[in-house]
Amino acid sequence: MSSPAPASSATTNGTSSPPPPPTTNGTTHAPAASPPPPAAPRPPSGLTTATLITLISGIVIGGLVVLIGVGLLVIFCRRKKRRELYGLTNVYGSKDDPSGPLQHWQQDAHQPTNNTDPMLPKHAPLLSIESKPQLSPLHIPASPPPMGILGTEKPLPPPSPGISLGFSKSAFTYEELAIATDGFSNINLLGQGGFGYVHKGVLPNGREVAIKHLKAGSGQGEREFQAEVEIISRVHHKHLVSLVGYCTTGAQRMLVYEFVPNGTLQHHLHGMGRPTMNWATRIKIALGSAKGLAYLHEDCHPKIIHRDIKAANILLDHNFEAKVADFGLAKFASDTDTHVSTRVMGTFGYLAPEYALSGKLTDKSDVFSFGVVLLELITGRRPIDKTENESIVDWVSFSLLCQ
């Protein structure tokens, strides 16, 4: 027979059981039940984990697309602003002719002189033989063609008394140069630009030369002409075009250069029907022109800033040795000066942006222009793409951004 259960519950593992619930009027009340824990949130119907991941990925990708779109819009606005800036500050160039009227002043003498020649700007075509009769050597004109930059006829002043050009180059008379060019005939016309005309000539000793003379009304005064002559007479380098002589007869201002027979880099890169240059030739041209530019910046004291480095001003001989030409805009710069403040001049597509904005000229302005020439050599593109109204610098920058 088993004994009755004790009044107090037995302990299990040293823990006493809770006391029985109190009674009221002999009725036992059970303890109040605790509220159930909140149910775990369930995903909305139809949205699985994979769907949520896809949704989040779509939001992230959409944000990236919007960010890229904003970036492209900013780049487009900056590029448009830069184009408008060049259009306003470029003294020579225009949007219709981005290569600018400061075109090459030498080209292949055997090329036909017609309006389709790719070397000359469309707004300044070569004079056709039919439009003006060819002049014989016996008929020496009183002056070169009288067309000025703005269509005005403004003769240059005579040489100032007591002012000497101060260098040992040959001095030619106007009659001597007229005979050398067959009366400045159109057949010998090599090119023309904002500065003046250039004719091929043959001196009495048989030497071929390129004779460059100022247009009437071109804005080149006595001091400017003498400054250019002084700069050109100081440079002597294999990769720079050398000056043979000059002419200051009356109001005439002419410079006589060595003749470089193989045209310009611009002609070989962009001329119609020209064969594609191989890489060895391109590298040779780049190195030669770089050496000529380095001579101006590092070996001349004071240094010379060319201010118009472009493919049209790099001439090539039959061995494709490069010669930097056309010092009409060159400036001296002291080694102690940080910059030279001057009017913004140059050719559209080659101007350094900081120079175009401030007018503060340094040798780095030439380096930027030479960089554009290198891009032309590498890509074969023109400095300004007329079809897309885009510069080669912007095109390369955008291409790198999209890598």
TrEMBL record:
Give the Enzyme Commission number: 2.7.11.1
Provide the topology term for how it sits in the membrane: Single-pass membrane protein
- A single GO cellular-component term on record: plasma membrane
Q: Which Pfam families match?
A: PK_Tyr_Ser-Thr
Database matches in InterPro entries: Kinase-like_dom_sf, PERK1-13-like, Prot_kinase_dom, Protein_kinase_ATP_BS, Ser-Thr/Tyr_kinase_cat_dom, Ser/Thr_kinase_AS
Indicate, by first and last residue, each region the UniProt record lists as having compositional bias (Polar residues). 104-115
Give yes or no: UniProt keyword Kinase: yes
Q: Where is the composition biased (Pro residues)?
A: 33-44
| Example GO molecular function | protein serine/threonine kinase activity
> What are the UniProt keywords, alphabetically?
ATP-binding, Cell membrane, Kinase, Membrane, Nucleotide-binding, Serine/threonine-protein kinase, Transferase, Transmembrane, Transmembrane helix
Q: Give every Protein kinase domain span.
A: 184-403
Positions binding ATP in this chain are K212
Compartments annotated for it: namely:
Cell membrane
Its signal peptide is none
Q: Which reaction does it catalyse?
A: L-threonyl-[protein] + ATP = O-phospho-L-threonyl-[protein] + ADP + H(+); L-seryl-[protein] + ATP = O-phospho-L-seryl-[protein] + ADP + H(+)
* UniProt-listed PROSITE patterns: PROTEIN_KINASE_ATP, PROTEIN_KINASE_DOM, PROTEIN_KINASE_ST
Which regions span the lipid bilayer?
52-76
| PANTHER family documented for this protein | NON-SPECIFIC SERINE_THREONINE PROTEIN KINASE, PROLINE-RICH RECEPTOR-LIKE PROTEIN KINASE PERK4
Provide the family line.
Belongs to the protein kinase superfamily.
Indicate what this protein is called per its UniProt record. non-specific serine/threonine protein kinase
Which species does this protein come from?
Answer: Vitis rotundifolia
